[in-house]
Amino acid sequence: MPTRFAWFLLVVLTIAGCRGREATPASTAVPQRIVSQTVVSDEILWELGEDVRRRVVGVSRMADDPSYSGVVDVWPKDVLRVSGTSEALVAARPDLVVLADFSAAETRTLLAHTQIPTVELDGFDGFEAFRRHVRAVAEAVDARPQGEALVQRFDDALARHSVPPPPDAPAVISWVDGMVAGLGTTFDDQARAAGMINVAARHGLRGHNAVSLEQLTTWDPDLIVTPCQGDCTAARERVASLPGLHVTKAARAGRIVAIESRILFSTGLDMVGVVERLRGNR
Questions:
Q1: pTM of the predicted model, to two decimals?
Q2: Integer distance in angstroms from the first to the last C-alpha of the chain?
Q3: I need a surface site. Which of 9, 58, 160, 258 has the fewest CB within 10 A?
Q4: Helix axes 39-47, 127-140, angle to 10 degrees
Q5: What's the pLDDT at 28?
């Protein structure tokens, strides 16, 4: 028996077939009904200013999630919170959808068959990725000057909080439920900007990898960073109490730092916040 999504897609395809090519806006038209499907594009579209904001008819379901979003309760309530696989995505009648390379296959199918123009963001792995995402979104919504101004804001803030690594640069590691961030990650960019050595990157790990507590204690970092939601003290104490961790320099010096997940996991402007926190714990 067909799924609910399959029935909906069948109806959408029938309507699209009846409308023919007129259902697809001209590629040169400035989008007037924009839907965002990623947290970072929720944030970018807001930062591009009032002219862009008034054309946004939908943002992602996570736009108001305090664990990940930098625009919680910022978008007006009449702007839809849209799930990519729901009828609401097409019902919003968008002429541009911003999605990610990890967006659901159902979403891609839906947008392809309804011929709705898209901008796909990929490679959420550091400062340069954010600059690329800002420019891609700004170009798609006809706001290139605002996009360049946003990139400049980011670079100016980054410059204010960045320092070159000293000869005795402290060694730092990001620890998230047994996962560490190595080369080619946002955290690696942040550690280097704060004048620190990312332990996982120094040992050749790339991307996010599972690492045992035994390996972590062997690496013996000067600083351990972990996420928190709400009670950061409890999160810090939970990591400090892990078996064997008390022998590390970080634990002995009280340098286990909990950073709000919204900031630590940001791929937008809040990435600079992690650099600032790291510098404050050097």
A1: 0.87
A2: 60
A3: 160
A4: 60
A5: 61
